[in-house]
Write a structure and sequence with these properties.
heterodimer; A: alpha+beta; Rossmann fold; Beta-Lactamase; 4 domains; six-stranded antiparallel sheet; five-stranded parallel sheet; 22 helices; B: Rossmann fold
Chain lengths: 730, 125
């Protein structure tokens, strides 16, 4: 094992060299020889032996001197640690031995010594030396590792602290000291976290205790911490067990503390922006959205601007028009507790909902001021140019007329306004103007960045709300079209129902008419053939009369159900009324009813079915006449309106109650004992067939007015009733 | 009185009886037919001065029958007699000399018969 070891023997006696050679060569050492101190030193440098055997007593440089030079002279630095064994004859000189050992001599052999003894010593020395060398290497490694670790800890961007299992601080970096500046670095190292005044109740002691007690790492904890300068920071602290393998003695804890204030603030700001954006997306009405937008800008510390105004671009007039203004202090938004709202999304949501309905009197006044603002977008104003370049602009007086006007909106408040354009799809929708949140009027970059982000969201929401308003308009148009359609449809259904009723009535009427003919006919025969008046004769006569009445009803029903299409001819309505007047005048007079005509002279002739309109007016006159028990007046008026002729039939009869009024046009509805309930239904049908309308107003005991409007130009298409399905040609 | 013969086509027995009695009271000679088949038989075998046709006959259309009767005698005066007013305005109905809507009051029918016969006699003489 030692075979390749080189041993330098420095001795002036040849015999020592010869013997040593003889023996050490066999033991596997390589022996090199020097015969005086000087050459010994030379060979030490050139041969670099693993061990030196040095004779104490030599002429010239003696052994002790040689040893001193090896250990001290700069030129022997390289070989300074070469083990040296003294060979001496001064066996009893204990003082010398002590001195040499103190100087670092590893061993000495007292002459005369056995060669085996020398070999053993050499063996031991080499073993010991090997161990020492390794130890030195290890120590170096440990030292560099420690230094490395320390450098890492010191330069880490987080606060780091390590303790042993008793809580004594082993290491703490400068970043850590930032949170506990009452200690200096040296002082801190002497502290125990569980006993020191500054630490024992802190999150540090708590975290370390947690790890030591539970033998596992503590959860990452986010906490607020106030620095001695009063600044609040948000920290995350995490404590981990060091040397987690259980059999190691040196167990301790490392604590890592990080300042996440900026990160948390950004994430928090973005969270709020996201919430606001969400709320804005949900606000449908433009007014609500604008209010929400401005309130959000002025609420709390996030955007935290003290006032906000919105101006909207009007596409059609190319003008920028003031829309709304909101001030934080005056609306109470300034006290908003964002952090708590964020923790409870439901509250935040309801807050946003409530925002849209709140408007303080101050803000109403403010809004009025803002609304006075109105500028052309086509002007070459510096502010407008900046806006179209999509820049946020700090307003200064004297550069832009618009800016000057804005600054004058409320000169009592600070003058640090910022205008931000609202763009959606390359279209300038408007401009937000806010003023700085701080008293000195400065706005930091992060506020500006947030405001720009916010403006992006706001523009999208505005664009959407506008689209929504357009949609709402379209919707209301559609709705009214639908309503019209529904009315038409209802009318159609009604007339279809009437047609169905009519068809059924016609069928029934015809079927009834046949037996009636037989009944009535024979009753007449009976009546006719009876020679004298008797009861049978009277009965037969009643049957015959009643049958005739039934036939009349049937004729009416059939008339209604098969109402022919109007035969439009150019006729004069006044003439028709005058003819009718002549027919009924006497009958009216006999009942002491005055029939009065108020006809507008020179009415133009227009197309109508004379027979059908006579029927309508006759129905109306008969109704009026029947509503007057005795003494009364009925008046017929005609008048020309734009495009229509109106005819009114007015009486001062009994009138019609409100409930009856709704039903009087229904077929078969009648209040009369012998009525068919078809007169007004037929009249209405005829007027509708003429493309006109008939309306009634009435008050019980005051009278009734029927008003007919007929178009001067016919629009109803001419329907041909001449051929019907099932017709056969002979 | 007079020898005017009337062909009465009516599928309802009770009505047929009513018209026959009433018309005979007026002095006419009445041939009854309850359907087209009987009506054509009579028209072919007997002298008929006037035909009164119900339009809706069981199994046959009175208008169709009118065509057949006119084939036998092109000068035969015809009165259409119906509970329905429908055919009054129809040009096929207007081929007939008259159109009477059925009523328990037969005076209208009787007047019409007299008028039609008067017209026919005037045209013939």
């Amino acid at each position: 094992m030692l075979g390749d070891k080189k041993v330098l023997l420095i001795d002036d006696e040849q015999i020592m060299h010869d013997l040593s050679h003889a023996y050490l060569d066999r033991a596997g050492y390589q022996l090199i020889s020097a015969y005086n101190g000087k050459s010994g030193l030379r060979m030490l440098l050139s041969e670099k032996p693993d061990c030196v055997l040095l004779d104490y007593m030599m002429p010239g440089l003696d052994g002790e001197e040689v040893f001193s030079r090896i250990r001290e002279a700069e030129e022997y630095r390289e070989v300074r640690h070469t083990p040296v064994i003294f060979l001496t004859a001064r066996g009893g000189d204990d003082a010398l031995k002590k001195r040499l050992i103190q100087k670092g001599v590893i061993a000495y052999l007292q002459k005369p010594f056995g060669l085996r003894e020398m070999s053993n010593i050499l063996d031991n020395i080499f073993i010991v030396n090997e161990i020492r060398k390794k130890n030195r290497q290890l120590e170096r490694q440990v030292r560099t590792t420690r230094e490395y670790l320390s450098r890492v800890i010191q330069s880490a961007p987080v606060g780091i602290l390590t303790t042993n299992r008793q809580g004594d601080i082993i290491e703490a970096n400068l970043k850590f000291l930032r949170y506990f500046p009452q200690f200096s670095k040296v002082e801190l190292k002497r502290q125990n976290v569980f006993r020191s005044d500054g630490l024992k109740d802190s999150f540090v002691a708590e975290g370390i205790a947690h790890v030591l007690e539970n033998d596992k790492e503590s959860r990452r904890k986010i906490l607020r911490w106030q620095l001695p300068d009063g600044k609040h920071v948000i920290l995350t602290a995490r404590f981990v067990r060091l040397n987690p393998s259980a059999d190691r003695v040196d167990v301790g804890v490392i604590g890592i503390i990080e300042d996440v204030t900026e990160r948390e603030r950004h994430s928090y700001e973005l969270q709020i922006l996201a919430q606001i954006a969400l709320a804005m997306q949900e606000a449908m009405a433009l007014e609500d959205l604008v209010h929400l937008m401005l309130s959000a800008i002025t609420a709390g510390q996030v955007l935290g601007f003290s006032r906000a105004m919105l101006f909207l671009a009007d596409e059609s007039t190319r003008r920028l028009v003031g829309k709304m203004g909101v001030s934080a202090e005056k609306s109470g938004n300034g006290k908003l507790d964002w952090p708590n709202l964020l923790n409870e999304p439901a509250k935040l949501e309801s807050y946003f909902r409530s925002i849209s309905t709140r408007s303080s009197p101050y803000n109403q006044r403010f809004t009025r001021h803002v609304r006075e603002f109105n500028f052309s977008l086509n002007s070459n104003d510096e502010l407008l140019r900046g806006l179209t370049d999509r820049k946020a602009i700090r307003l200064r007086g004297g550069h832009s007329a618009i800016a000057d006007k804005l600054l004058s909106i409320e000169p009592s408040v600070n003058q640090n306004l910022i205008a931000v354009p609202l763009f959606a799809n390359d279209e300038l929708l408007g401009m937000l103007v806010v003023d700085a949140p701080t008293a000195d009027g400065t706005v930091d970059d992060s506020s500006l960045r947030l405001l720009t982000l916010f403006a992006g969201n706001a523009a999208t929401a505005l664009e959407r709300a506008r689209t929504y308003e357009q949609l709402a308009m379209e919707k209301s148009k559609l709705e009214s079209a639908y309503k019209e359609l529904k009315v038409t449809h209802d009318r159609l259904v009604q007339s279809e129902r009437l047609a169905a009723i009519g068809e059924m009535a016609a069928h029934v009427a015809h079927e009834i008419r046949n037996p009636l003919v037989t009944i009535g006919g024979f009753a007449r025969q009976l009546e006719k053939r009876a020679k004298v008046d008797n009861r049978e004769n009277t009965a037969a006569s009643i049957i015959a009369d009643e049958v005739l009445r039934l036939e009349k009803i049937l004729a009416n029903v059939l008339n209604f159900s098969r109402l022919p299409n109007p035969q439009f001819r150019l006729n004069n309505i006044n003439l028709l009324i005058q003819k009718l007047y002549m027919q009924v005048r006497e009958e009216f007079a006999s009942k002491r009813i005055t029939l009065k005509l108020s006809l507008q002279p020179d009415l133009p002739a227009f197309h109508f079915d004379e027979q059908q309109l006579t029927q309508v007016l006759f129905n109306l006159l008969r109704n009026s006449q029947q509503s007057i028990s005795d003494f009364g007046m009925v008046e017929i008026q005609t008048r020309q309106n734009s495009g229509t002729i109106s005819i009114a039939v007015q009486d001062d009869g009994d009138g019609i109650s409100k409930t009856e009024l709704d039903k009087i046009f229904n077929p078969f509805y009648t209040t009369k004992q012998h009525g068919t309930g078809l007169g007004l239904a037929i009249s209405q049908q005829i007027i509708h067939d003429h493309g006109g309308s008939i309306k009634v107003t009435s008050k019980p005991d005051e009278g009734t007015i029927f008003r007919i409007e007929l178009p001067l130009e016919i629009q109803a298409e001419e329907k041909s009733a001449e051929y019907e399905a099932g017709d056969m040609i002979i | 009185m007079n020898n005017t013969t009337i062909l009465l086509v009516e599928d309802e027995r009770a009505q047929r009886l009513l018209y026959k009695e009433e018309l005979e009271d007026e002095g006419y000679q009445v041939f009854e037919a309850k359907d087209g088949y009987e009506a054509i038989n009579i028209a072919e075998q007997k002298h008929v001065d006037l035909a009164i046709l119900d339009i809706f006959l069981a199994g046959e259309d009175g208008l169709e029958l009118m065509g057949k009767l006119l084939n036998i005698n092109g000068n035969l005066p015809i009165i259409l007699h119906s509970a329905y007013g429908t055919w009054k305005d129809n040009w096929r109905g207007q081929v007939a000399d008259a159109y009477v809507i059925k009523s328990a009051d037969l005076s209208n029918l009787k007047t019409t018969i007299r008028n039609v016969m008067l017209n026919t006699n005037q045209a013939n003489s």
